[in-house]
Amino acid sequence: MTRCVRASYRLDLMADGQPCLLWLSGRTGPGVHALGTVTGPVAATCDGPAVPIRLVLLPDPVPRNDLLADPRMRDAEVLRMPAGSNPSWLSAGQFAAVLDRVDTDRLEPWDR
User: Fold this and answer.
1) pLDDT tens digits, residue range 19-52?
2) How far is CA 77 from CA 1, 36, 73, 109, in A?
3) pTM for the complete prediction?
4) Which residue from 110, 3, 9, 97 is spatially nearest to 59, judged by alpha carbons?
5) Is residue 111 part of a domain?
6) Burial of 2 by CB count in 10 Å (0-12 exposed, 13-18 middle, 19+ buried)?
7) Structural domain span for residue 23
8) What is the count of structural domains for the chain?
9) Is residue 86, in this structure, part of any structural domain at all?
10) Residue 108 domain-assigned?
11) How far from 54 is each of 18, 21, 73, 90, CA to CA, in Å?
12) pLDDT digit string, tens, across residues 79-90
């Protein structure tokens, strides 16, 4: 599958094999709903840039409120600016805060 991304310097930072996640914003169920991997380079499409990814839906999404309570997530831009554009960025510590709340044993195989 591919996901639309906003043209920015960040597109040059994305690479095949990097981890990614699906964050849903809004009033109903905001938080991390899937984990995955970038599967190729960003490509130009008629709708703008897009990146190929593979995602695995989480059986139990990680709620935004749970992440807000973790000091490692304090500066995460997806929490500070939930209506920001893709791609957003997490530090290694912020990504670890997400993974600490995911029961990876219950997931279908995915590349970590």
Assistant:
1) 999 998 888 999 999 999 999 999 999 888 999 9
2) 25, 19, 9, 28
3) 0.85
4) 110
5) no
6) middle
7) 2-101
8) 1
9) yes
10) no
11) 11, 10, 24, 18
12) 888 677 678 889
